[in-house]
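Here is a typical sample entry:
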Amino acid sequence: MINKKDPSEFSWGKYNADIPFECRLDEPKLFSWLDDQIITGYTADNVIRNRTEDYAVMFDVDGNEYWSHINKNLFDKYLKQDAC
């Protein structure tokens, strides 16, 4: 299960988890890429920018945390799939 994190953990210094461009445009590729990542949490609160259509999703990359925006509808669908 992927838990929500406090929005204060999503700082500029941790921004820019490198989600491949081709994954952002293709739902199956995005889900496959997410399956290969260590997701440490997410928040629905606005972080850094006012992007109400996105979640901020945090990843562990070589022991460091980085985050990126992912469309809420897609991430909700991924979470539901992951819960099955």
